[in-house]
Amino acid sequence: MNDTQHIEIGNWKSYITENIRGKITQRAISAYVENLVLRDTVVIIDFKHLAQLLGIDKHVLASIVNGSKAFYYNFEIPKRNDGKREISAPYPVLLSAQRWIYEHILIKQPLHESSKGFVKATSIVDNARRHLNQKYLLKMDIKDFFPSIQINRVMSVFRVLGYTKKISYYLASICCLDGVLPQGAATSPCLSNIIAKRLDYRLNGLAKKFDLIYTRYADDFTFSGNRISLGIIGYINSIVSDEGFKINENKTKLIGEKSQKIVTGISISSGKLTIPKKTKREVRKNIHYILKNGLFEHQKNINSNDPIYVERLLGFLFFWLSVEPENDFIKNSIEKLKIYSKMLDDENTLHLYK
Hints:
about 55% helix, 4-stranded antiparallel β-sheet
């Protein structure tokens, strides 16, 4: 116990002595508080205290805990390959509560080093870099990753930290929608990594036995090495199933030595990190037609109504530059699109005052 923890526990014990009746109750709450402090997590005594910590009216919090559906709005985004992904985004009051849980409780929890997605100061670039200069690549994907994590598993995260069953239920209810982790909640990425930690340990251990490298980026597994036997897929499936998840078999790919190798959208085929040629061609084409024909005409031709199309394109160019920092085409394109974007803004401002 360090000095800060000692002072915090002392302060809580003084509060408990002055405000809680009954020696047995005082001892029980004091032990509960001390356990939380020593685990370096936030002390939460009861529902009213949680509402105060979150800065939410207790009646609003009760509505969230009893059924959070009214606090979400839904929309769809395209998946990386085909189809669409439904996102359930929380309204501000719920989003604020989820961010508080993330910043004060979840972010402190240790993850396995193989987990590369949704981790501070880590990106898809770091995930891909781990697999450079490997001859073979095995890519697998968890089916319905977030929705397959049910509220009882989320409750277990908070129970392990020392919270009571009731407090754990309140916290888990704030993080879940219809009893599962939703796509779009601020807490879902971190919670999924915490819950998948044992899965990461087991798959990393399996990889070491086969002299392979293993990483996980959200629901994407990547194994790499100088040789990969098809037999390992069965072992992986068994471990994943045992941990309460399911492999999307349609996305399992074993990539040979001479084939193109792409890990989380980044090519490692050449022995260095690059953006795949197909993606580069598409981005170059979009930039060319925007600068030649104008944004309106280009979006009309590709059937896009994205209000921040140029901003998204610029965002990708900055990402591409982080992968290939010496690429002059990217630098020039960023400058040209910035000038074009400013011109559009000036035209729109002028139009408002006409």
